[in-house]
Amino acid sequence: MRLLTVISVLVILTSCGDAVKVDYRTGEHKPEDVRKMAYEFNAAMIAKDTAKLSTLLHDKLSYGHSNGWIETKEEQKANLYNGTITYHSVEQPELKVIMNGDIATVRGNGIFDVDYKEHEHLLFDLNVMQTWVYEDGRWQMLNRQSAVNKKE
What we know:
Blueprint: H1 2-27, H2 31-47, H3 50-56, E1 57-64, E2 70-71, H4 73-81, E3 85-91, E4 96-100, E5 103-116, E6 120-135, E7 138-148
Parallel strand pairs: 1-7
Antiparallel strand pairs: 1-2, 3-5, 4-5, 5-6, 6-7
């Protein structure tokens, strides 16, 4: 009976130890780290820094614009250089980050100042949601979708 009690206690403690490891792993990612990546992404878009974008964007990126246009990782980088789109500024003063292990959702409003096809200057007031995943030792944007904020 005593042996059974000892074994039961060891099983419970071992199980709790694994739970602590899982909680620790989940807790090792901080919202401010993902928020920093989102701001670095904005800066890389403005600078047309495709080397930086290569590390920030997931290979399976789906980047949705407010008009329904969707770009892949390679299309997005190419469109920065071929004149399809130029980002002059992105103002997103507050980004909310929700963490779930190796996945993070970033949401925020912003003003996007862009040129489309080198001749159409546009200013967008957008609500943007991004999904970031932690893979290969770094945060990568997997999805992004924007919608125009309604004027009231």
